[in-house]
What does this fold into?
Amino acid sequence: MRKILSCEFNLDTACVELRLDDGTMLSIDCTVVENEVANSMYQRSELDWLIYNDPLAYAELILNGDPETYLKTVTEYEPLAS
It folds into this structure.
């Protein structure tokens, strides 16, 4: 298993960039991910929060997890009752 040495969000490219212990550099295009997996502004907001506040958790979710299931679990849209 490769180990992540660094992980950060690059505002200029809108990518989360990872450097692995074997010298590999990975770049996750956050705009493409949002367009593919986020179905609402609430899901996009959740991904944005992860990108800015915990890019490592975001990278692990995208590379090893199931982002669709995660977003359905953590975001719930309930219209306001009138």
